[in-house]
Amino acid sequence: MLSLQFTEKNKTPKGPSADQLAFDHVEADPYNPNALFHIYKANQWMAMEQEAETPQMLFGRFWLQGELCILFADTNMGKSILAVQLGQSIAAGKAIPGFEMNAEPAPVLYIDFELAGKQFEQRYTDERGTFRFSDNFMRGEYNQLYKHYSPTTRFNDDVIEALTRGIKTTGATVLIIDNITCMRKGTERANEALPLMKQLKYLKTRHGLSILVLAHTPKRNPAMPISRNDLQGSKMLINFADSAFAIGESNKWTGYRYLKQIKQRSTQETYGAENVVQCKLVRRDSFLQFNFEGTCHELDHLLTSTQQLRDRNANQVAQLHAQGLSQRQIAARLKLGLATVNKMIGWARD
User: Fold this and answer.
1) Parallel, antiparallel, or unpaired for β 137-141 and 108-112?
2) Do 287 and 337 form a contact (C-beta atoms < 8 A)?
């Protein structure tokens, strides 16, 4: 192996010897952790990686072992519910129906910045009782009373240090963070997102983790397909992620959602725009979860331009009617037919 290092005096690389350049076998020595780059011949990389284990599926082709994956969606789309469902599935070693999981059961650490303990308990309790999670599933809750005092470190450094301790203490090999926007203010800005994603990548590599981070989307156009541009801080977050997928809301079928692959490095695209996964929230045995009901085209869930125009007109009619304008006055101002205005006022009453 050839390691590029720099001297403190002139910052020039130490050149390799003729023997180093001539080697054609796979080195048995482990990586030098102090080297800036690990350099082998391309064929050596091929030989080494052929011996490495193939990443197993954790959630079909959405998320594989060893990946830093991002799950993003708008507020109240069920990101946390799906994340807990995934954590329980991996911890118990039981695949979610409809998706392959060939990985062995693994200890999961779920870091919850969103819910308080009582809120979490209530979410998984109903008249039938309280859901019993796998003992492999561990949850960490953010301490709202924590204060960052150090003048030499940032809050995000404290979070990474605490995550490291949690991983070592629990022996977790799967880490789920709900959500990334709570770990650092301003992740929509590139200069804020870059250090955070680099730290998570380092954490993943150092401890051999599979990481899922949840993220929000800003307000988006419901007539447009979901893309990487819908993620806050999309360029930096997506660039550093190994994979990403999103939850979208169906604008045609009430209560339905869909999952869409946004990025994948280790596998082919399976659930793109022409084959999104349709799903709906259900509760079974006190466990709130997504029920997956097959695939369809993303266009089946998007709002059409005609629907957008109708909804916008209906909102304007309702506002003007609340201000005391007559139906004829509303029709004249919005250039709509009187019968259309009457119908829209009827919708508002219903």
Assistant:
1) parallel
2) no
